[in-house]
Write a structure and sequence with these properties.
The protein has one domain: 3-methyladenine DNA Glycosylase, Chain A (Roll). The chain is built from 9 helices and 8 strands. It starts with a helix and ends in a 7-residue tail after the last helix. The protein is 26% helix and 18% strand. With 294 residues, it is an alpha+beta fold. Strands 1, 2, 3, 4, 5, 6, 7 and 8 form an 8-stranded antiparallel beta sheet that branches. InterPro entries: Formyl_transferase-like_C_sf (IPR011034), MPG (IPR003180), MPG_sf (IPR036995). GO terms for molecular function: alkylbase DNA N-glycosylase activity; DNA binding. Its EC number is 3.2.2.21. It holds the Pfam family Pur_DNA_glyco.
């Protein structure tokens, strides 16, 4: 039998029939062995059959080895987060935080207010003195790592690590863009006060409120914003200019001496979703001719 005939027989499952009908089995098996070892012989396997079956999905999903992750091409990557703390806090303004819920719904919010915490020297920082603990470990991890901590034993706040040992940016307020009904559901479920319909501007205008609205808890601590499937950031469409950013003091750190007066809070001027507006600083900006959007 010619080699090309043997190839066809092997391919179509006729090997047993050939062995039964040909007298010189040993010679046949020798030829078959040589053919199977040849680099020109087309290997037939289950994966190839799945890929060539008409109408079949070319990328089987039954095994983890066939899953190909589709990364969002616009997702902010590690190089974005790899900035000094103050620079990152300002750069966050106007960017979009995206949260994918377990049921597949996506929540989108534009970052409108942040605070910078500079690490060891910063008396208001959880990492003051350079002290690393189990609680604040995320502040010492690669830029873009989430640091989520609990306050009053009830609420959560979300920070993002930056350049610098123990430095991180607190996300203070978001402007809800998508999934507002789901945000209301999550806020309602986490509040102990009598349920009332929250207005849009009330959903995420504070660090704990935005965590409630986005379903963020301690389970998100130490996650990587550039890699995580449930939470990430994408670029905003209209980056704010310098005249659109108010630089003022942080909130709720009154017992930290001179650090309570450091201008390390940043927010979008004129945005009604900001938690606390500094009217004095805004008047000073206006007096200097810094009008929003100019």
């Amino acid at each position: 039998m010619a080699p090309h005939q043997l190839k066809a027989c092997v391919q179509f499952g006729m090997l047993d029939q050939i062995i039964r009908t040909m007298p010189r089995k040993r010679k046949l098996l020798t030829q078959l062995s040589a053919l199977q070892n040849s680099t020109s012989f087309p290997q037939i396997d289950a994966v190839e059959q799945l890929n060539t079956t008409p109408g079949a999905d070319p990328s089987p999903k039954s095994s983890k080895y066939f899953v190909i992750e589709k990364k969002n091409s616009s997702q902010l990557q590690e190089d974005f987060f790899n900035q000094p703390c103050v620079s990152l806090a300002k750069s966050f303004l106007g960017q979009i935080l995206v949260r994918k819920l377990p049921d597949g719904r996506e929540l989108w919010g534009r970052i409108v207010e942040t605070e910078a915490y500079l690490g060891g020297e910063d008396e208001a920082s959880h990492s003051k003195g350079g002290k690393q603990t189990q609680r604040n470990a995320a502040m010492f991890m690669k830029p873009g790592t989430l640091y989520v901590y609990q306050i009053y034993g009830i609420y959560f706040c979300m920070n993002v690590s930056s350049q610098g040992e123990g430095a991180a940016v607190l996300l203070r307020s978001l402007e809800p863009l998508q999934g507002l009904d789901a945000m209301r559901e999550l806020r309602r479920a986490s509040r102990k006060a009598p349920a009332r319909l929250l207005k849009d501007w009330q959903l995420c205008n504070g660090p704990s409120k935005l965590c409630q609205a986005f379903g963020i808890d301690k389970a998100f601590d130490q996650r990587d914003l550039s890699q995580d499937d449930a939470i990430w950031m994408v670029p905003g469409q209209d980056p704010p200019g310098e005249q659109d950013v108010v630089t003022t003091t942080r909130i709720g750190i009154g017992n930290t001496g001179e650090w309570a007066q450091k201008p390390l809070r940043f927010y979008l001027r004129g945005n009604r979703f900001v938690s606390v507006v500094d009217k004095k600083v805004e008047r000073e900006m206006a007096a200097r001719g810094h009008s929003p959007g100019s």
